Amino acid sequence: MALHATYFGANGWLLEFGSLRVLLDPWLTGTLEFPPGPWLFQGRLAQPWPVPQRLDLLLLSQGLPDHSHPASLELLEKSLPVVGSAAAAQRVQALGFSSVTALTPGQHHDFAGLRITATAGAPVPQVENGYLLEHAEGRLYVEPHGFLAPDLPAQPLDAVITPVVDLGLPLAGAFVKGRQVLPRLLERFEPLTVLASTAGGEADYTGLLTKLLWQEGTAAAAAALLTTPPLDRPSLPSDLPGASRFIDPVPGVRYSLAAKPTCLVAKAPE
Questions:
Q1: How big, in percent rounded to 5, are the helix, strand and coil portions of the chain?
Q2: CATH class belonging to 3-266
Q3: Which of 17, 39, 133, 209 could form a disulfide with 137 if both were Cys (CB 3.0 to 4.6 A apart)?
């Protein structure tokens, strides 16, 4: 089994199921801004990332700029097949992508041996997508805001990609619920590996929202939860088998997710 993941920061990943290469929610170049402009929120990468070579599929969970980043999407070949949420599909079609499949929660799509099942994700404000990805080379679940669909069946997975902190704004509350969802992900999927996402990477953020944004939880706290024996974890079932490996990924590092973990916490390349 050959399952690999490379992180680009924020929500961006390259997922490799054997020879099948899937680019997820990339922010590779340029600034990240939300309307009405940079005075509200702007992100700048420490360095641009080259477009990964030999891509087979672009997978987009949301239509918002931090998932369907316009400048990054412009770097990609418009013939590259795309699977995304309804909002993301509209974004890429407007940019000229020619092969676009829109999925709503509960729908699935088969592509080159990969079954993509859309799950109910974050309401921002329309309900966007998480994904259950199943391939002969590995099975993983990803949802970038920490929203777990209650109707997604319990099943053992090789990996889960999830935020592990909560992020929110005054009055609006948490719009990323990684700290809250992590115990439920462990119970539901018993993943061999958990990879932290969404709040990581090497970028600088400015604007009004950054002054109001609050965070609860840390990657270190998530790692401690995963490596604590089940009987000492009151937030998890006492019969949860084993412990998951936790990876707080270094951007640009390619991690192997195929083998059953022999170490429990990973921060550096394997």
A1: 15, 35, 50
A2: alpha beta
A3: 17
